[in-house]
Amino acid sequence: MSDDLPVARIAPPAILADPAPAAVLAALPGGRAVGGAVRDVLAGRPVADVDVAAPFPPEEIAARLTAAGLRVHETGLAHGTVTAVLAGQPVEVTSLRRDVVTDGRHAVVAWTTSWREDAARRDFTMNALSLSAEGELWDYFGGRADLEAGRVRFVGDPATRLAEDHLRALRYFRFQARYGRGDPDPAAVEAIRGAVPFLSRLSVERIWMELKRLLAAPDPAEAVALMEATGVLPTVLGPATLGAPGVLGALAAIGAPADPMLRFDALLTHGAAEAARRLKASGEEVARLVARYRAGHDILPIQPAIAVGGPDDDALRRLLADQPRDRLLDAAWLRQAVNRAWGWQGPDDPAWDRFRARLAALPIPTFPLQGRDALALGVKPGPEMGRLLAETRRWWMEDGCTADADACRRQLAEMMKAIHTKTLPKM
Ligand code: ATP
Ligand code: MG
């Protein structure tokens, strides 16, 4: 271990003095923060959670942490990871590992005491840094310089690293989107092209998770374009047809929220829900895309009105009565981005902003009658009641969604009378 010298000493970051990481590091002599936390400390970015590694087998790590009074969850023990919790803050603690067998999807690992070996199995040089509580920095593969230069570079030979784990082809784009500057590393791009035929072996769940992480980056458009150019994106999306290439970029340009689902939608526009279903997205996620699609149908025809400051409040309430507000907002962002990407003349940007502000501000109208109101008026339960309520709701919508319960009851009563006299009421 005498050759395992730190390359630098930096001011110990405050995040390592938080109760949980500090207690973990104190309980594990020779332990270091690893991975994303070290990278983000050096990049001056906010650090979400600290991962720690230590040169002991997992059982020993668990025993030492427990003895130090931390709560320890052993769910990942077989992979060498335990989760320590203190004051509600979790810290993942992993034994130093080296790969014994890899097949592109799974790895058999062995514990090691070599930090260099552990760093060598990590994906990118900027992810292979480690840092002690005292601020000593270890950097075996030039990760610090790569981070500063905006180079996302594989540790070791890219093709070998991709053959060990195909998921790294997708992870590359996530880190490229967040830390890449200038031209992407040619060796990485070439190796990723070569790995495309193997990507179909990845489980769709892992693909979906990685895609969402990529799409959560502040501005993923360039990395996504590269992903398309290398053939990775069409392969992982399967038969889905990509939408216009510029929509994702336009979405960022108009200031839309950094929402991975909205961006996935922008990537495909048509068939986003279908593609998400194929990737085994959650029911909630698929439902959101379906609802956005429906809301989009209602936005399309009112664009001329949006351009001139409309539509009026009655029309807006009708929209809100029929479609979830958040999906209308999604649809408005997407429509605006599509217009911009295609160079279509539509409402200008401030008009869209005003439209969304009004959509966001109006209370959601709810139809004031329920089945029991119809019962009280003497309507028998059954299809007749459903029809009468639906008709009354239609009248309430036409009227601008402002009629109160009494007015709706009167309307329903009139409709009943009309049915009995076989004439329709005047609306
Ligand atoms: P984020 O802030 O997005 O979570 P992260 O660096 O913490 O970034 P994780 O996916 O949480 O990313 O992984 C933690 C660390 O584990 C990485 O920094 C990297 O060192 C290592 N790692 C994760 N997945 C792989 C992989 N497939 N191959 C090699 N190393 C990996
Ligand atoms: Mg992480």
TrEMBL record:
Coiled coil: none annotated. Gene3D superfamilies: Beta Polymerase, domain 2, cca-adding enzyme, domain 2. The keyword Nucleotidyltransferase applies. It comes from the Bacteria. Its cofactor is Mg(2+). CDD domains: NT_ClassII-CCAase (cd05398). Residues 33-153 form the Poly A polymerase head domain. Keywords: Magnesium, Metal-binding, Nucleotide-binding, Nucleotidyltransferase, RNA-binding, Transferase, tRNA processing. Residues 185-237 form the tRNA nucleotidyltransferase/poly(A) polymerase RNA and SrmB- binding domain. InterPro entries: Bact_CCA-adding_enz_type3_sf, NT_sf, PolA_pol_head_dom, PolyA_RNA-bd. The keyword Magnesium applies. Belongs to the tRNA nucleotidyltransferase/poly(A) polymerase family. This is CCA tRNA nucleotidyltransferase. It comes from Roseomonas populi.
